[in-house]
Design brief:
Elements lengths: L13 E9 L5 E10 L3 E7 L5 H9 L6 E6 L3 E4 L12 H6 L8 H14 L15 H14 L4 E5 L7 H14 L8 E5 L11 E6 L2 E2 L5 H10 L1
Parallel strand pairs: 3-7, 3-8, 5-6, 6-7
Antiparallel strand pairs: 1-2, 1-4, 8-9
The structure holds adenosine-5'-triphosphate (ATP) and magnesium ion (MG).
The site of magnesium ion has 3 residues, from α1.
Length: about 230
Protein backbone atom coordinates (compact mmCIF):
# COMPACT_ATOMS: atom_id res chain seq x y z
CA UNK A 1 0.00 0.00 0.00
CA UNK A 2 1.33 3.44 -0.84
CA UNK A 3 1.74 6.05 1.88
CA UNK A 4 -0.66 8.20 -0.12
CA UNK A 5 -3.52 6.01 1.16
CA UNK A 6 -3.19 7.54 4.63
CA UNK A 7 -4.72 10.96 5.32
CA UNK A 8 -2.17 13.56 6.44
CA UNK A 9 -2.06 14.09 10.24
CA UNK A 10 -4.23 16.99 11.38
CA UNK A 11 -2.46 20.30 11.87
CA UNK A 12 -1.93 21.48 15.47
CA UNK A 13 -4.80 23.56 16.90
CA UNK A 14 -2.33 26.23 17.98
CA UNK A 15 1.33 27.00 17.29
CA UNK A 16 3.43 29.80 18.77
CA UNK A 17 7.02 30.29 17.71
CA UNK A 18 9.59 32.68 19.13
CA UNK A 19 7.08 35.03 20.76
CA UNK A 20 8.42 38.18 22.36
CA UNK A 21 6.12 40.57 24.20
CA UNK A 22 6.48 43.44 26.70
CA UNK A 23 3.79 45.47 28.40
CA UNK A 24 4.24 49.23 27.90
CA UNK A 25 6.36 50.64 30.67
CA UNK A 26 7.10 47.17 32.07
CA UNK A 27 9.86 44.64 31.44
CA UNK A 28 9.75 41.79 28.93
CA UNK A 29 6.87 39.41 29.78
CA UNK A 30 7.51 36.75 27.11
CA UNK A 31 10.80 36.07 25.42
CA UNK A 32 11.51 33.27 22.92
CA UNK A 33 8.26 31.60 23.87
CA UNK A 34 7.14 28.52 21.89
CA UNK A 35 3.94 26.53 22.40
CA UNK A 36 2.30 23.80 20.37
CA UNK A 37 -1.11 22.34 21.16
CA UNK A 38 -1.36 19.23 19.01
CA UNK A 39 -5.10 18.64 19.15
CA UNK A 40 -8.27 18.70 21.23
CA UNK A 41 -7.99 17.96 24.93
CA UNK A 42 -7.41 19.66 28.25
CA UNK A 43 -3.98 21.30 28.40
CA UNK A 44 -2.80 23.02 31.58
CA UNK A 45 -0.17 25.64 32.35
CA UNK A 46 1.30 26.34 35.78
CA UNK A 47 3.97 28.77 36.89
CA UNK A 48 4.88 31.37 39.48
CA UNK A 49 3.19 34.74 39.75
CA UNK A 50 4.50 36.98 36.99
CA UNK A 51 5.89 34.14 34.85
CA UNK A 52 3.77 35.33 31.91
CA UNK A 53 0.77 32.95 31.88
CA UNK A 54 -1.99 35.57 31.56
CA UNK A 55 0.07 37.57 29.05
CA UNK A 56 0.40 34.42 26.94
CA UNK A 57 -3.37 33.83 26.96
CA UNK A 58 -4.05 37.43 25.94
CA UNK A 59 -1.64 37.05 23.01
CA UNK A 60 -3.32 33.82 21.92
CA UNK A 61 -6.73 35.49 22.17
CA UNK A 62 -5.47 38.35 20.02
CA UNK A 63 -6.10 40.97 22.72
CA UNK A 64 -2.49 42.13 22.35
CA UNK A 65 0.05 41.67 19.54
CA UNK A 66 3.52 40.14 19.85
CA UNK A 67 6.62 42.24 19.11
CA UNK A 68 8.20 39.25 17.39
CA UNK A 69 7.28 35.68 16.57
CA UNK A 70 4.38 33.86 14.95
CA UNK A 71 0.99 32.71 16.22
CA UNK A 72 -1.03 30.20 14.13
CA UNK A 73 -4.57 29.63 15.41
CA UNK A 74 -6.65 26.95 13.73
CA UNK A 75 -9.76 27.39 15.87
CA UNK A 76 -11.85 30.32 17.07
CA UNK A 77 -10.64 31.42 20.53
CA UNK A 78 -12.64 32.52 23.57
CA UNK A 79 -11.34 33.64 26.96
CA UNK A 80 -12.79 32.68 30.33
CA UNK A 81 -11.50 34.87 33.15
CA UNK A 82 -10.96 34.17 36.82
CA UNK A 83 -13.86 36.42 37.82
CA UNK A 84 -17.02 35.86 35.73
CA UNK A 85 -18.37 39.24 36.92
CA UNK A 86 -15.68 40.81 34.72
CA UNK A 87 -17.13 39.32 31.55
CA UNK A 88 -20.88 38.90 32.08
CA UNK A 89 -22.55 42.13 30.99
CA UNK A 90 -26.30 41.69 30.64
CA UNK A 91 -29.16 41.15 33.12
CA UNK A 92 -30.26 37.59 32.25
CA UNK A 93 -28.58 34.34 31.17
CA UNK A 94 -30.46 34.36 27.87
CA UNK A 95 -29.66 37.97 26.96
CA UNK A 96 -26.00 37.35 27.84
CA UNK A 97 -25.81 34.39 25.47
CA UNK A 98 -27.64 36.21 22.66
CA UNK A 99 -24.79 38.72 22.73
CA UNK A 100 -22.43 35.89 21.70
CA UNK A 101 -24.60 34.27 19.05
CA UNK A 102 -24.00 35.01 15.37
CA UNK A 103 -26.59 37.71 14.54
CA UNK A 104 -26.88 36.44 10.96
CA UNK A 105 -28.71 33.32 12.23
CA UNK A 106 -32.49 33.42 12.07
CA UNK A 107 -34.54 33.58 15.27
CA UNK A 108 -35.17 29.81 15.41
CA UNK A 109 -31.46 29.06 14.93
CA UNK A 110 -30.49 31.61 17.60
CA UNK A 111 -32.95 30.05 20.04
CA UNK A 112 -31.60 26.53 19.31
CA UNK A 113 -28.02 27.75 19.80
CA UNK A 114 -28.97 29.49 23.08
CA UNK A 115 -30.76 26.44 24.52
CA UNK A 116 -27.97 24.11 23.42
CA UNK A 117 -25.28 26.28 25.06
CA UNK A 118 -27.25 26.40 28.33
CA UNK A 119 -27.86 22.64 28.28
CA UNK A 120 -24.20 21.84 27.59
CA UNK A 121 -23.12 23.64 30.77
CA UNK A 122 -25.91 22.26 32.97
CA UNK A 123 -27.99 25.47 33.04
CA UNK A 124 -30.96 24.24 30.97
CA UNK A 125 -34.15 26.18 31.68
CA UNK A 126 -32.36 29.21 33.15
CA UNK A 127 -32.57 31.56 30.14
CA UNK A 128 -34.75 34.03 32.06
CA UNK A 129 -32.74 33.88 35.31
CA UNK A 130 -31.12 37.15 36.41
CA UNK A 131 -27.36 36.69 36.38
CA UNK A 132 -26.99 38.30 39.81
CA UNK A 133 -28.99 35.40 41.28
CA UNK A 134 -26.53 32.72 40.03
CA UNK A 135 -23.87 31.16 42.24
CA UNK A 136 -20.22 31.78 41.39
CA UNK A 137 -19.95 28.34 39.80
CA UNK A 138 -23.09 28.90 37.74
CA UNK A 139 -21.74 32.27 36.56
CA UNK A 140 -18.52 30.62 35.47
CA UNK A 141 -20.50 27.97 33.60
CA UNK A 142 -22.51 30.75 31.92
CA UNK A 143 -19.25 32.37 30.80
CA UNK A 144 -18.27 29.01 29.29
CA UNK A 145 -21.72 28.77 27.65
CA UNK A 146 -21.05 32.14 26.00
CA UNK A 147 -17.87 30.67 24.46
CA UNK A 148 -19.90 27.73 23.15
CA UNK A 149 -22.59 30.05 21.77
CA UNK A 150 -19.83 31.87 19.90
CA UNK A 151 -18.84 28.53 18.32
CA UNK A 152 -15.35 28.76 19.84
CA UNK A 153 -13.37 25.54 19.71
CA UNK A 154 -10.30 26.81 21.61
CA UNK A 155 -11.13 27.89 25.17
CA UNK A 156 -8.53 29.94 27.04
CA UNK A 157 -9.24 29.72 30.76
CA UNK A 158 -7.25 31.92 33.15
CA UNK A 159 -7.54 30.38 36.63
CA UNK A 160 -11.26 29.73 36.13
CA UNK A 161 -11.69 28.02 39.51
CA UNK A 162 -9.63 30.41 41.65
CA UNK A 163 -12.67 32.14 43.18
CA UNK A 164 -14.95 29.10 43.46
CA UNK A 165 -15.87 26.86 46.38
CA UNK A 166 -14.54 23.27 46.17
CA UNK A 167 -17.76 21.79 44.77
CA UNK A 168 -18.02 24.45 42.03
CA UNK A 169 -14.31 23.98 41.25
CA UNK A 170 -14.94 20.29 40.61
CA UNK A 171 -18.05 21.02 38.52
CA UNK A 172 -16.27 23.52 36.26
CA UNK A 173 -13.28 21.23 35.82
CA UNK A 174 -15.55 18.24 35.05
CA UNK A 175 -17.48 20.37 32.55
CA UNK A 176 -14.35 21.37 30.64
CA UNK A 177 -12.97 17.83 30.84
CA UNK A 178 -16.25 16.58 29.32
CA UNK A 179 -16.31 19.18 26.52
CA UNK A 180 -12.72 18.36 25.59
CA UNK A 181 -13.43 14.61 25.49
CA UNK A 182 -16.86 14.50 23.87
CA UNK A 183 -17.04 11.99 21.02
CA UNK A 184 -18.05 14.52 18.36
CA UNK A 185 -16.17 17.79 17.91
CA UNK A 186 -14.18 17.71 21.15
CA UNK A 187 -12.94 21.16 22.14
CA UNK A 188 -9.43 22.28 23.00
CA UNK A 189 -8.88 23.99 26.35
CA UNK A 190 -5.77 25.78 27.60
CA UNK A 191 -6.28 26.12 31.36
CA UNK A 192 -4.05 28.12 33.70
CA UNK A 193 -4.02 27.07 37.33
CA UNK A 194 -2.23 27.39 40.63
CA UNK A 195 -4.16 24.36 41.98
CA UNK A 196 -1.80 21.44 41.51
CA UNK A 197 -4.57 18.90 42.19
CA UNK A 198 -6.26 20.02 38.94
CA UNK A 199 -3.25 18.77 36.95
CA UNK A 200 -4.46 15.20 37.57
CA UNK A 201 -7.33 15.84 35.09
CA UNK A 202 -5.36 17.15 32.13
CA UNK A 203 -4.01 15.56 28.97
CA UNK A 204 -0.74 17.45 29.26
CA UNK A 205 0.77 20.00 31.61
CA UNK A 206 3.60 22.47 31.15
CA UNK A 207 5.52 24.76 33.46
CA UNK A 208 5.88 28.41 32.53
CA UNK A 209 9.05 30.12 33.77
CA UNK A 210 10.42 33.56 32.95
CA UNK A 211 8.23 34.05 29.89
CA UNK A 212 8.76 30.61 28.33
CA UNK A 213 6.67 27.43 28.30
CA UNK A 214 8.39 24.12 29.09
CA UNK A 215 7.62 20.78 27.44
CA UNK A 216 4.31 18.96 27.85
CA UNK A 217 4.41 16.28 30.51
CA UNK A 218 1.85 14.15 32.36
CA UNK A 219 -0.03 16.32 34.84
CA UNK A 220 0.62 13.97 37.75
CA UNK A 221 4.37 14.00 37.07
CA UNK A 222 4.53 17.81 36.92
CA UNK A 223 2.42 18.12 40.09
CA UNK A 224 4.73 15.69 41.91
CA UNK A 225 7.87 17.54 40.81
CA UNK A 226 6.41 20.87 41.97
CA UNK A 227 5.30 19.38 45.31
CA UNK A 228 8.85 18.15 45.89
CA UNK A 229 10.51 21.38 44.71
N1 LIG B 1 -1.47 45.15 31.92
C1 LIG B 1 -0.19 45.12 32.29
N2 LIG B 1 0.57 46.23 32.28
C2 LIG B 1 1.88 46.22 32.65
N3 LIG B 1 2.54 45.08 33.02
C3 LIG B 1 1.83 43.95 33.06
C4 LIG B 1 0.43 43.89 32.69
N4 LIG B 1 0.00 42.61 32.82
C5 LIG B 1 1.08 41.91 33.24
N5 LIG B 1 2.17 42.70 33.38
C6 LIG B 1 3.52 42.25 33.79
O1 LIG B 1 3.91 41.20 32.92
C7 LIG B 1 4.58 40.18 33.63
C8 LIG B 1 3.82 38.85 33.45
O2 LIG B 1 2.54 38.99 34.07
P1 LIG B 1 1.36 37.95 33.89
O3 LIG B 1 0.13 38.57 34.41
O4 LIG B 1 1.36 37.47 32.49
O5 LIG B 1 1.86 36.75 34.85
P2 LIG B 1 1.07 35.49 35.41
O6 LIG B 1 1.96 34.31 35.20
O7 LIG B 1 -0.29 35.43 34.82
O8 LIG B 1 0.99 35.79 36.96
P3 LIG B 1 -0.14 35.37 38.05
O9 LIG B 1 0.11 33.93 38.40
O10 LIG B 1 0.10 36.29 39.19
O11 LIG B 1 -1.49 35.59 37.44
C9 LIG B 1 4.63 40.65 35.09
O12 LIG B 1 5.88 41.24 35.30
C10 LIG B 1 3.52 41.65 35.18
O13 LIG B 1 3.78 42.65 36.16
MG1 LIG C 1 -2.20 35.54 35.63
Amino acid sequence: MSLGAFPPPPLPVLELEGIRFSWPGAGVALQGCDLLIPGPGLWMLVGRNGSGKSSLLKLIAGLVEPEAGTIRRRARCAMVFQNPDHQLLLPSCGSELLLSIDPSLNQQERETCLQSALAQVGLAGLAERPIHSLSGGQKQRLAIAASLARQSALLLLDEPTALLDPESQREVLALIRGLTHQPTQPLTALWITHRLEELQQCDGAALMQDGRVGPWQPGAALAASLHNA
